[in-house]
Amino acid sequence: MVEGVKLEESWKRALAPEFDNPYMSELRRFLISEKEAGKRVFPKGGEYFRALDLTPLDQVKVVILGQDPYHGYGQAHGLCFSVQPGVRIPPSLVNIYKELQSDLGIPPARHGFLEHWARQGVLLLNSVLTVEEARAASHQGKGWERFTDAVIRAVNEQCNGVVFMLWGSYAQKKAAFVDRARHLVLRAPHPSPLSAHNGFFGCRHFSRANEFLVSHGKEPVDWQLPERV
């Protein structure tokens, strides 16, 4: 395990071989050395696996893939696209809220804290689970990508009827192996202000996901976030 961090039991069983692999030992050493050098790493250690802790493997309904944690102080807490309460809503999440309103009539939330989704089976997974403060992509290529590939494989192989929302080419390449005979794969441009107008707006992924879930005998996701967190 990384720095003694615990992991939710269903994921711990599914991912046990990864923690015995040398690349995870190298990743652990890298993170320790970064902190010993006085570098600030986000999110905090207890939240590296927050997405997995909030969404057990057997409860996954939807997978949304991000790339890196936010690298500003106080933003990241282990869920892709989500920020802690009281933090300004990032531009990509603003656009996600715009699409939610267009698709389902849900007014934009006044905060960016997405744990309500995660607790309903929406796996909000970043490809890389840590980052150095103010240095975007600083922990890429250190082993996290291999670990999160294993997370996606576990969902692909052990779950049925999961919706994969793949926004942008990075997410689409990372989950290219997902079995479309067992799962619904929805693709769209990234919600970033640079690309949202190229097809993210109007993709209707949220309603399409719920229609698929209901057709497979599952509860739809309540995408409306609580006013207070």
Task: Give the structural class.
Answer: alpha/beta
Question: Spatial order of the strands in the main sheet?
Answer: 3-2-5-6
User: What's the helix-strand series?
Assistant: HHEHEHHEEHEHEH
- Helices, by number, come to 8
Molecular shape: globular
- Give the biggest beta sheet: 4 strands, parallel
Between the first and last Cα atoms, what is the distance in angstroms?
A: 30 Å
The average pLDDT score comes to 96
Characteristic terms for this protein:
single chain, 229 residues, alpha/beta, four-stranded parallel beta sheet, 35% helix, globular, Uracil-DNA_glycosylase-like_sf, DNA damage
Overview of the structural elements:
The chain is α/β, with parallel strands linked by helices. 35% of the residues lie in helices and 10% in strands. The strands form 2 sheets. Strands 3-2-5-6 form a 4-stranded parallel beta sheet. A two-stranded antiparallel ribbon has the order 1-4. The longest helix has 15 residues, at 22-36. This is Uracil-DNA glycosylase. Belongs to the uracil-DNA glycosylase (UDG) superfamily. UNG family. It catalyses: Hydrolyzes single-stranded DNA or mismatched double-stranded DNA and polynucleotides, releasing free uracil. It holds the Pfam family UDG.
